[in-house]
Amino acid sequence: MKKFLILVTVAVIATCLVGGCVEEVKTYTDSGQTIDIGVNQEFVIALGANPTTGYDWEVGEVKTYTDEGQTIDIGVNQEFIIAIGANPTTGYDWEVSLDETMLELVEKIYKLAEEAEHEIVGAGGVDYFRFKALKAGETEITMVYKRSWEEPTPQDVTKVFTVNLDETILELVEKTYKLAEEAEHEIVGAGGVDYFRFKALKAGETEITLVYKRSWEEEGIDQKVFTVNID
User: Is residue 1 part of a domain?
Assistant: First the structure.
């Protein structure tokens, strides 16, 4: 009897090694459905797409902040923008100080007032500072409006933004695109399907925001929000 049990166990292990005893990775297409998942498990979100139009799904809405009184809550590896009025023709510009071990200044873009997405009273234009969160913790971004060739003075306009950085509880493992005839899921009116594969890293509740947009445009034409519960 014992010999039989051993043989059965060996057979099951061999089957797993050959066929792969892997838990099924569920796919979700409806943003109205809550995704319940365990830590270290994976899941897929499938959305209709047609990149030949220039549009594609991007993960995560990049929020813009203009008020230093508002705390910026962000996850590690996510990005955010600070928009602040400026007029470089006066010789003044914003000088940024930050902890480079916690935040990375990805880029700075200046737009004239009539081209900017945010109206800032009295400004000739708007400076957009895009930051990326590098590790968990709390930090500050200090911005001083001054001429680069002058020493700082108490009269310089100074703005301080507080940033709370949390550990990421979801990881985007991969994104793949398949033409409609090759996709596993039929999505009406779509030229193909984008598959986003995520892995749950720790327990908690979060949201995944997917925006359908052109990479060179600020606004998207569609947005879907998925709620995720991780046990």
Answer: no
Tokens at residue 95, please?
């000088």
Tell which phi-psi region holds residue 77, choosing left (phi > 0), alpha (psi between -120 and 50) or beta. left
Give the span between the Cα atoms of 80 and 58, in whole angstroms: 14
Statement to judge: residues 181 and 161 lie in one domain: no
Element (H, E) at 7: helix 2-15
Q: Is residue 66 part of a domain?
A: no
Summarised one tens digit per residue, pLDDT across range 168-217 is: 888 889 999 999 999 888 777 678 999 999 999 989 888 899 999 887 77
Q: H or E element: which one contains 170?
A: strand 170-179
Distances (CA, A) of 26 to 43, 84, 139, 161, 198: 5, 43, 38, 40, 11
Residue 64 domain-assigned? no
Residue 145 lies in a domain: yes
DSSP secondary structure of 201-229: -SSEEEEEEEEEEETT-SS-SEEEEEEEE
- Domain count of the chain? 2
